[in-house]
Amino acid sequence: MIYSIEKITTLIGARRIGNTDAQIGWLLTDSRSLCFPEESLFFALQSQRNDGHRYIKDLYRRGVRNFVVEKLQVEGEDLTTYTDANILIVPSTLSALQRLAERHRDEFNIPIVGITGSNGKTMVKEWLYQLLSPQMTVTRSPRSYNSQIGVPLSVWLLSEQTDIGVFEAGISQPGEMESLRDIIQPTIGILTSLGDAHQENFRSMDEKCTEKLHLFHGAKVIFYNSDDNTVSRCIRRSGYDGEKIGWSRENESAPFYVASVKPSNEKPGLTEVAYIYKGERGIYHLPFIDEASVECSIACAAAARYLGVTNEDLDLRMQAIEPVAMRLEVKEGRHGCTLINDSYNSDVNSLDIALDFMNRRPDHQGRKRTLILSDIQQSGKSDFELYNEVNNLCQQRGVARFIGIGPMLMKCADCITIADKAFFTDANQFVQSETFHSLHDEVILLKGARAFGFDQLTELLEQKVHETILEVNLNAVVENLNYYRSFLKPETKLVCMVKADAYGAGAVEVAKTLQDHCVDYLAVAVADEGVTLRRNGITQNIIIMNPEMTAFKTMFDYDLEPEVYSFRLMDALIHAAEKEGITGWPVHIKLDTGMHRLGFDPEKDIEELIARLKQQSAIIPRSVFSHFVGSDSDDFDAFSAEQFRKFDAGSSKLQAAFSHKILRHIDNSAGIEHFPERQLDMCRLGLGLYGIDPLDNRILHTVSTLKTTILQMHHVPKDETVGYSRRGILERDSIIAAIPIGYADGLNRHLGRGACYCLVNGQKAPYVGNICMDVAMIDVTDIDCKEGDSVEIFGEHLPVTVLSDVLDTIPYEVLTGVSNRVKKVYFQD
Ligand SMILES: *Cc1c(COP(=O)(O)O)cnc(C)c1O
User: Fold this and answer.
1) Domain 108-319, architecture per CATH
2) Which of 24, 154, 614, 728 lies in disulfide reach of 768, CB 3.0 to 4.6 Å?
3) What is the pLDDT of residue 36?
4) Cα separation of 427 and 441, whole Å?
């Protein structure tokens, strides 16, 4: 839907400066997602961590002319000088965004489903979409857009074609649901399972449940698990007076009674769910067995039946239901390609998000961006309209090669105006083609439904990896980053340490993610690491912590900024820079305040340092820093205070000698949390970024998970031995599994002989005997498992700190010890 800027001004009650006509189709809250500048309205949102007003200048340069703001002066610039722009001034940009979505919602007199709960919101939303979309046009939240910002952006997608809206609402603290309710105004409510997530901000389960129920105020009907006493109690007390459809596995008189859940006899591999809905018996089959899926299917079945899906259709559609893949995976492909795999349901909104993701990942080798797309089903638009829109997005997001798979795309081939394009009826035909064999050195986004054989396609394009992989969750990196940012003042800068291949997680991908989130500096140990980043499109400032004397030229060529810790290093650097005719090369001065590793003495050396720096113009101090020896422990607080005092004195003297600003920094991960008052101009974040809080070894958000698979299983009788030197002596008849990971992969030999364990299907499997170079053996006697099952060495369910404790070392060593031959797979939710 398109709104004129006048209409929007009225709807949100803004004061408008500028009178250029404009038609708005897109709401923008993140400048990086800009696609259609002329039709976009940018909301300059302010958060604790960021101020959207900062991006206005850049957006204006890129053609955006419509802005909603809270202030007219931004970093010394006066927005009223943009005379051809429309500036809408409001007291709160977030409220204005929400107001606009609310007014948009008011235009629709159609059923709207609002989903909330602690777990399973996205799954219920996606499955309900799959169940309903064959018979009606559904507009739903993209991915898990369920926040104070995500909900208005989702509701904005309602259009004339929409028959029903399905939106999820997520809250993390009391008071948030009211505004989401006003935007969604659900006529139908679904409460998924309550769980204990986000418990920290609520005093009790009742409080949390009651808060969530606010969403349903005014709804005609609600669906919920009536076996959950908390839920039933809170609904009774809430004064809700619409229709209540509780589902139950215990109570036969419940409106949706689930009589049985069992493996199907007639349809092997499927779960059979028998139910009675308002007195009518029905059965459906589900291709999943796990409890969460079954619970989710019940909520969806009840709502679908209510919305007019027949028992027969429900069964057919349930059997074909697809798992909800929320991850965008980045993998190494064959022939130098990078694969971005998005198996999330194909639709235009999620295509846009995936293209945006591809586009944001810088790529300096100028590799082609290729999209492999399957037919998009059930969009509610005409094919022609749909593929014109797809074409538009591809043009805007820089797709250079388009490969369409499916009969509809074949039919609409003319809609795609990218010169390099090809179309196939199915994946098989594509795999046989010239086009398939010509893929090389490209960044490929794979976006398609399973029905078109995309699973198999992904496998063919992927480089075959060793069964042992390190999975790296890029979202977790961002969440950890934001955790530490929350301790910082908005103006404090941040260096992120990506040395040692980003503590084992892979420097290039992590750096791309960090660059995307605008950290100020990246730091690596040696020049070569910096070169690798530059060659992969990293343009952020990079500090080299241990610059080798042999690598100065490389640093100049690749725009890398060395740390300088001694007079000898400084003289050599100045000499090299002068030889190249370089002036003003930025360097970072290290002071030794107690580590006694590297650095100038802040008392004895500082005068001479200043004098020598002043005598020349080849290098210029950009920052000055020092490093705490024990910021992670109260035991060293007095020593840390003394380090800080020395640093403060020395660095102040250095600053006083120069007229330009020299950034001062001393806090590392532990320091940021332990001494936020010492954050000065900048902080250096290392271990915390990778999910380990150094203060207490707590896991923040797990970034790296090391996984492998069971290669072979043996029954080995009591008194036999396992492995080299007969060290694994069996005290009972055992089942021993061999896994393809050894000390050459970074699995420390001291973890062997029962010292530690890994997880097989969630259960502890101790290492038996000595760990070998490439293989280890584990005891799975008490575990239900088979060859090919996945094994977690450390990660999501087994904190890396368990291993580092056994090894009597620090998590840093275990993380950085994972060897290079272990392939990494990156993903983001
Ligand atoms: C590695 C490093 C850091 C980061 O330390 P963490 O404890 O991982 O946060 C900070 N400063 C310097 C100089 C470093 O070498």
Assistant:
1) 3-Layer(aba) Sandwich (3.40)
2) 728
3) 81
4) 21
CB contact at 8 A, 347 and 376 = yes
Query: Which tokens sit at 337?
Result: 């390609």
**Cβ atoms < 10 Å from Cβ of 61:** 9
590 Cα to the center of ligand 1, angstroms: 13
H helices of 69-172, where? 93-106, 121-132, 150-155
Longest Cα pair distance anywhere in the chain, in angstroms?
92
SS3 648: helix
Predicted TM-score (pTM) of this structure: 0.68
- 825 C-alpha vs ligand 1 centroid, how far in Å? 25
> Shortest CA distance to 674 belongs to which of 628, 740, 725?
628
SS3 content of the chain, % helix, strand, coil (to 5): 35, 25, 40
361 annotated among ligand-binding-site residues: no
Q: What is the pLDDT of residue 821?
A: 86
Strands 734-739, 712-716: parallel, antiparallel or unpaired by DSSP?
Answer: antiparallel
Is 208 among the residues known to form the active site?
no
Cα–Cα distances in Å, from 791 out to 172, 288, 702, 723?
33, 21, 17, 19
- Does the pLDDT value for residue 368 go beyond 70? yes
For the cut 90, the answer to whether the pLDDT of residue 451 exceeds it is: no
306 part of the active site: no
Pick from 493, 546, 627, 812 the residue to mutate for probing ligand 1's pocket: most ligand atoms within 8 Å of its CB.
627
Q: How far apart are CA 204 and CA 210, in angstroms?
A: 10
Domain 3-94 has CATH 3.40.50.1000: no
Say what the pLDDT of residue 196 is.
60
Residue 355 has pLDDT above 80, yes or no: yes
In testing the pocket of ligand 1, which one of 480, 487, 496, 497 has its CB within 8 Å of the most ligand atoms?
497
